[in-house]
Amino acid sequence: MFRRSLFIIILFTLLISACGAPAVATNASATESAIVVTEAPVTEMSTEISAVDGLGRTVTLTVPAAKVISLSPSNTEILYAVGAGDQVVGRDELSDFPEEAKAVESVGGSMGDFSTEAIVALQPDLVLASELNAPELVKSIEDLGVTVYSLPNPKSFEDLYKNIETVATLTGHDATDLIDSLKARVAAVDEKIAPLSSRIPVFYELDGTDPLKPWTSGPGTFVDLLINRAGGFNVGSSLQGEWAQISSEELVAADPHVILLGDALYGVTVESVAARTGWDSITAVKNSAIYPFNPDTATRPGPRLVDALEEMAKLLRPELFQ
Asked: CA-CA distance, 109 to 93, in Å (whole number)?
């Protein structure tokens, strides 16, 4: 169970890398999510939308998509957040938020395998892919006559806002209020955290199946970005790779003051972590600063990243949020 969860978590960690390279080489304009909307004469009642996707391709819709299939959980969350939930006719197997998304027909993808037959049968106007989906999959769907837009991998909150705006435009919605609200919430956290002169060492556990060498998020991931933005210092930032194992000896030496359990959903408990051999000398253990943390909010590049930032900041700096 832990190994399967690790596999899924790793996929999402790779997806939301804050500084990772895209899956394929792209033009500079690809990450800008450039959108051009050309309004036709009023009598024609149509609007053409052209946008550059994460693979550097210009994707054009004659009108906003009325039927959309999402191939990643983050895309699904964005679609519902911008008001396009009723337009989602298909989803990947792992899309489970919001709750109503579970009722939408699945087209596979739990282990990376999608049913192109199911996708075509749903007759979508648009398939919304992400960098979790291989370029080969995108091409195979397009070869069947279906329009695919691959949402670029966000490297910052600003990139996230651009993605939300892009999805809203492709589906005929206005995300101005949503984006303004997200920006205001992030700014409220920044206002409290930015003046701090020190950072709290934090350990974020991805998978503790092997308690002697648990997996954590390394440099360049959104978890790394969130920890720093929330007033912490990611002890995994000194490791090699976006996900890596850290030995108990290394962790004791790093002495995190806060431990966040991204694997709490898979059975790891605060008590079991505190009881690990040698961990009793860690400040977070001594001060009972071990907290379960929903990995979906921290590893899916959708609107809930702001939820993750707020929660993390309150756990790390509770005195600032009284």
From this structure: 6
